[in-house]
Design goal:
6 copies of one chain form a homohexamer. Chain A has helices at 81-84, 89-103, 108-111, 129-150, 183-186, 217-243, and strands at 18-22, 30-36, 39-49, 62-69, 114-124, 165-173, 176-179, 191-198, 203-210. With 246 residues, chain A is an alpha+beta fold. Chain A has a 5-stranded mixed sheet with strand order 1-2-3-5-4. In chain A, strands 7-6-8-9 form a 4-stranded antiparallel sheet, sandwiched between helices. In chain A, α2 crosses α4 (129-150) and α4 runs parallel beside α6. The longest helix of chain A has 27 residues, at 217-243. Chain A is globular. Chains in contact: A-B, A-F, B-C, C-D, D-E, E-F.
């Protein structure tokens, strides 16, 4: 690892300060306000007994997610998608990513015919909003599942969660692989990658994009290694948060 | 005033606990996270030098507002308006109300050719979201104006704010006029009224609706009196908040 | 009251000429083409046996309203909302207001599981379109209820209408409270208020807005008094119209 | 011609009663409320000095039309296209037809760089709404052109209108060709045709559709003959209306 | 007929080369890639057992069509209607025309409670796209009906197709009636007509429009004659295509 | 590599038959109809001199892409996104992917202030539509650039293309990594990955998703190796196609 120090004083393999306010919402069955540095995402999980019509009678549950950003989460104000009357490609893409990440650790049979909708609303954005969203959504999901168990919608012994899941961004800046990019770093990155990793260290999703020059296998390997390590740290924070009791 | 005690222990003429976190957002030129009891609204003010095309060259500024609710701000999840592809009537109505309330205390000539967009996003809803939004939006607006002054977009001596503005709901429940209704009260109210009042105690907006039986002049007067008193208390909290320095 | 005479020769407490062509439409179960001076609104009531799914089986009916303006009802042509693909905030707001006003005088239990949709289409606009719409909609509603009774969808003795309802605008121009503002007056008004009042003289809705300077309690009282008197006159015209037989 | 008498007592080659209230609107530069029997269409013409950007600087004007139906113009209420958020195919199709019909008799060079938008709003529908719309729109158009001339937007000697234009429906019912179908006839017609004809008797548009059995050349000829005669009568009514002075 | 030769060497009463690739799609129950010269349209027929809810239980089937153009089918790229979020009037109009043309030759009782949706996607446009679409759609429809018969959704002896159907454009250019206009001819045509004709030579639809000067009965007759002859040739090509076995 | 044989007889590291019809469209500046087995995508490139407003005056060009599927490209018909009035998340996601892939090999400075829009329309879908689209889009792009050079919109010596680009899907089925999944394989894959690789063998994009069980680094490496080899073969086919002259 390099001796380079970043704008905010971190080493290249260091996460920004992570905080999770579990149970932030008085309304939702599970919720977490997560921060990765200046990025703050409110994740709520809404539990409904029953499933969408297309899934009825199959003995399986459904987990889905929606991601959005407040108009002034960013440095310049963006017009609301509700005002524009349509959802942008980026929003769609991230919502789908979060949903896939969560479903990868859920046994939908064990969940039974119940639906959990995760909303991830970015209150403040400073890079890595999708990875913070996934990491926080896992907390909200876990609590909503416990809520369903207490309410007897889920069997007392059902093992709904197969593993935990967290995500982090990695990227190459000035030829240097770095972990958890802040916004000022993200815009300069030649290659930008998001990795979604389970608590056991297996990949759920790997999305790497050359923003500048294409990258080779060696660079890819370096990024994956950083990402795995970052997700392991996030997993420990998640475990601690959930262990603390609500 | 009646001796009636409410579900949350308040007297009929008492506000819920009000908190204002001024400068909550690191991105916006002005911001406040305001709570009226369980209602929590994030208000941000975005300052732009320049005005929309239709106002160009008239030497006047523009203040407008958008209101929205996170899908799980409420007890049951609502579908996102961005997903539905259209904004509902209630959202439109409240956005327009907030905009009018703020413009009533702004001298747009003194503001100069600058635009301030206020976003009020309800993170958690427990009745009175529009009145909390107006009350918090004033703080964000005031700070955005100060920002514009520091950046020299507004003249050092321009008196942009003519007065402060706050709002509160009042209603009649079981024939009893009450101040600042929580959600469980709101759904039971026969008459529901929102009053928007300046710091000097003048009305900017009075909106009263009979949800149950129509009301007479005497009831209207009782509600207005409660509302004026509630807004005076809110004005004091606003003054204190702004006096504290950012 | 002041000695001021208005552009159209009226005194400050005088309505414009009101005409109601009851039964204008050969298709609708109830209808009225109402004029408040140059403002002309076609109100139709569509009666359907049955209620929306969310109300089924509750033994109650449903009354709702939609307001719209023809593109060239106004002095400058407005683009159609159907062409824009979305309904504006003002349209939404007025539709909701009309619906609330009518429901305030309807006993939905007595109506039984029937639905009445009121359409108020402004053919020509010269101020006060929403108040003319409410006043005319009451006539269309009353006739649709009678239609439902004749067709045996409503019991012969059911008292569906609890009272009549009418509405009028009032405003302060050059410090003078005035009744029933025409368009040229409306744009100059410092304070603009719409009052919806039942035949017995109770308020259903009070919506007052400071367009210019905020207003005090004394001004509010003057406006309310003018509005009550105006609605009483409109009630008499409604009574006469309905008494004449269709 | 056959001795058949129709439901409303007309002979097969007879129009329904036609009335035209010229100048119905106090706002529009030209307007007409036209009736073909129970079909009533309000046609307004909005004159604007200038043309859309894509036509600027070509020395030519623009005439376009929009058609719409009030929700309860018909026997059953239709949902508003503004509420549905999109315009239906039938509405689009008729708007385009009216626009083409009017442009066929306008010399856009003589019109100069001016725009006329014709709105045809069906207040009550009983068959033949598009043909009534075209026939009434011509009156509104002619008056808007005269308005433009009086306001000096159009040269005093410019011959903008090359001819008049009118339209009528024809159809085959029980093997019998008939003129100007009312709604009850229209739904029974095997073949349905609309013809748009200039004052000089030339075709602008012929649209014939087999709703039931396909038709042969002989039937087509009979329909065209009826349509030409009907349009000649409409032209005379138009001439008389315009001759009467506004 | 005139001795005039056209830009592409055709005589005035000559079709462009017509090719039909029957069964182009491996997915659809019926399909054809049809070319009228440079115009290429992919027609697919999707067969579904069952009918839309509004037709259920009436013992009848449903045939409908949708037309669209790829963005770069034309010389200049058009924005996608999916991106614009709404379908244009022209697209609606042509979709409706194709549907009517096909339904005119289908016995929906014999089809039984089955639905066939025809999609006509213009891959390359050089005039006459709607007429090529109808002509190719008939092939796709015929094959989908045979598919339904093989799958026993349609009775072995049911005569679903009453006749064949084809369409062609005709127009007047420099006073000369011409058959099957290519794009360069279409833009110059004074009158433009589309005729839809059954295999037995009866009209299903006649749509003639004066783009320039209005036309008289004699010109109309000349165009209809050309169109009937063109459709007879297309019918022979259709018969040959279907006779060849799939 | 395994001895497993697939449903279509391929070995696990074998592509489906690839065909490219270069210059398929007579209208577009560049085009290719590409097949990966039963997947057929029409790629067109539209060249416009000039750039969108937000890029004007920066001396750089713009390359973007839109992906769509015909409604019956798939085994079951999908509703058109134009009819639904909005674009789905999957469509957005793939359009963005194609655009990024192409921009990775374009020197926008060398392109100059020109815009190239690539449309990829799936005519028939059998798995791997996005990878076929990227591979075919490169051909269309290359030809559009040559067109721009011939028309002198691009300098004769400008090296606009920095490299070629191709893409292929890989996946793990029954624990076996396989290249270029057909639809029946894709739905069974536990892990699904798309790799976009330049002619020189560098990664532009790596998108791997666990559809079933999460995957480890060893599996990821096996997939990447297969993908690199597949893209190398596609690069050779592209080179041959472009070398053949148009």
């Amino acid at each position: 690892m390099s001796e380079i120090t970043r704008a905010d004083g971190r080493s290249v393999d260091q996460l920004r300060p992570v905080t999770i306010e579990r149970g932030w919402s008085a309304q939702a069955e599970g919720s977490a306000l997560i921060s990765f540095g200046g990025t703050r995402v409110l994740c709520t999980a809404s539990f409904t007994n029953g499933v969408p019509r297309w899934l009825t009678g199959k003995g399986k549950g459904w987990v889905t997610a929606e991601y959005a950003m407040l108009p002034r989460a960013t440095n310049d104000r963006n017009n609301r998608e509700s005002v524009k009357g349509k959802i942008g490609g980026r929003t769609h893409e991230i919502s789908r990513l979060i949903g896939r990440a969560l479903r990868a650790v859920v046994d939908t049979k064990a969940l039974g015919e119940n639906t959990i909708v995760i909303d991830c609303d970015v209150l403040q954005a400073d890079g890595g909003t999708r990875t913070a969203a996934i990491t926080g959504a896992y907390i909200a999901l876990a609590d909503a599942i416990e809520w369903g168990r207490r309410k007897k919608f889920i069997g007392q012994k059902s093992q709904v969660l197969l593993d935990s899941v967290a995500a982090v961004s990695v990227g190459i800046i000035d030829s240097e692989p770095m972990l958890d990019l802040a916004y000022v770093e993200d815009v300069r990155a030649e290659t930008d990658m998001n990795v979604v990793v389970t608590g056991r260290g297996l990949f759920v999703e790997v999305q790497g994009t050359a923003e500048g020059a294409p990258f080779d296998k060696r660079e890819l390997d370096a990024l994956l290694e950083l990402g795995l390590a970052g997700c392991a740290t996030l997993r420990d924070i998640q475990t601690e948060t959930l262990g603390a009791g609500e």
